Amino acid sequence: MDILIKDLDYAVDLNLNLYRDIDILLRRGDKGEITIHRGRNLMEKFNLDRRDLKIIEGNRRCAIPGLSNNHTHIPMTLLRGIADDMILQDWLESRIWPNESKLTGEDVYYGALLGCLEMLRFGVTSFNDMYFFPEEIVKGAKEIGIKGAVGFPVIDFGTPQYKDLDKLLRACEEFIKRYLREEKIRPVVAPHAPYTCSRDTYVQCKEISQEYNVPLHTHLSETRYEVVEMENKIGRRPVEYLESIGVLGENLIAAHCVWVTKEEVKKLGRYRVKVVHCPGSNMKLASGGVMPLVEMLKEGVSLSLGTDGPASNNNLDILEEMKICALLHKAHRWDPRVGDVDTVLSMALNSKSIGFENRDVVLLDLKSPHLRPVHNIKSNIVYSANGNDVDTVIVDGEVLLENKRFSRIGDRDLERIYTKVDRVVKKFEVQ
User: What are the TM regions of this chain, as residue ranges (predicted)?
Assistant: First the structure.
């Protein structure tokens, strides 16, 4: 069924064009593709019968494209708040890794369900994830209805699923083949980082990604420690190292890129690497550096936003992440013009860099006091809105959230998920 959103106060499209007092029509083609039309009197223009339409009231609302969370570890919703205000290495070694080792596939499934619900509630319609038991993340994303680039994690010392590296790599290839033809799922090869994956591991991951034409997703230059360690051990910085082994390329999605030089930024631009900025997590974990936004933009690097995992953010709210991003770069550069509204909004809508066309629509409720008055709607979106302002979410022509209520998941299902999550986390050690 086609969807008509009537009498919107405002709308912003993917090119950041602004519309006032407008209707939006989502029409499904013969092959299932969604076409978006904007204008007035669209029922008459397309000679549509009201009985053949799903009509949504747009009064006191603003329509934006779907938001994209391009680097996260969704099942870490289960670890939200378990370890805050700690040095990164202590955080990992004493709290995160010991508790993660207790997780089963079923646990990850419920953590993924919780995370997908959180993202949908916050207007996120596509995501890029890296976590073990990835088939459970796929299952959760498909159940909720949002689009996921789901990475199969590869790390030299193994994962809770596969302790042997050879088995891990074979399983990775099988995972890629299994989900290669999915409509809303993009399988991804996800070597963890240059300091946890050997040259041979990266090369094999690259070969799998090339054979099946799927992305590589990795952490890159997140902390000063990892950069110094690599310089001391092999005489190269992480970006230089990945270039030397042939991993840099347009299929690479690199998360963080906090500790990079101007020359490395030029390499990222030259190889058309897609960089995901995670400012909230970087600041909370005190990574120290700041991703060089100005230089990245100058070199034409494809930029997007990610929340990182809920254990280090501690939410999956991309609307909130936009404001964090803008303020961080203004403060860092002593320049209020840096991290402007259009720049960070473009980053938040960039689902194309993880393989998804963005034909989704999110409605923001403008009736709350913190979103009035409206002198500049894009300013309100970036600096004033948060995920709780999302009212309606339409993904690939399906209404998944309406009037702040989930369409696929009822109250009983929500209670079942919350109860299961509460049981799972009882196995954790919290100090």
Answer: none
Q: Domain limits of the chain?
A: 2-64+361-411, 67-354
Identify the three-state secondary structure at position 92.
Answer: helix
CB 371 within 8 A of CB 389: yes
CA distances in angstroms from 270 to 118, 192, 258, listed in the order given:
36, 23, 18
- Among residues 86, 110, 109, the alpha carbon closest in space to that of 96 is found at 86
Q: Where are the extended beta strands (E) located within 224-295? A: 252-256, 274-277
In this structure, CATH architecture of domain 2-64+361-411 = Roll (2.30)
* 58 touches 64 (CB < 8 A): no
From the candidate CATH numbers 3.40.50.2300, 3.90.226.10, 2.40.50.140, 3.20.20.140, the one assigned to the domain spanning 67-354: 3.20.20.140
Q: What is the pTM of this model?
A: 0.96
The answer to whether 98 and 63 are in contact (CB under 8 A) is: no
For the chain of 431 residues, list the mean pLDDT of each consecutive stretch of 10: 95 97 92 89 89 94 98 97 87 88 95 98 98 97 98 93 93 97 96 95 97 98 93 95 97 97 98 98 91 98 97 96 98 97 98 96 97 97 98 97 96 95 89 61
Structure tokens at 25: 């029509």
